[in-house]
Amino acid sequence: MPRLIELLPEGEPFFPKDELTDKPMRFFISEIVREKILQNYSKEIPYSCEVVVESYKDKENIVDIRVLIYVNRDSQKAILIGHKGSKMKKVGIESRKDIEAFIDKKVFLDLYVKVDKDWRDKDQKLKKYGYE
User: How many structural domains does the chain have?
Assistant: First the structure.
């Protein structure tokens, strides 16, 4: 392996040294929420969800974030929300704590679950959600 490194040409860095990634903040927020869904649900529910950060408003003392979670069917929506919203509340609390630690600022996290019927089977929807 060291020989391979010796043969590689040197070039200008793609990013400044203090820049960790080229991904926007919305990407990390959606991934944190998706992680909490994976941790709190089983079977097909986490794999039927698409997480979209609809708005991200960085105010003076707090960041106001609205996240939409799309599922394929009404039954999945009910499972995701849970009895009297208990499951979604847990996902929200865990997500908010991780987001606050990540951005080092207080967060108001507003989660909504919506049905986008069979979104995984439609090319237009897959493209909209960044899969193509």
Answer: 1
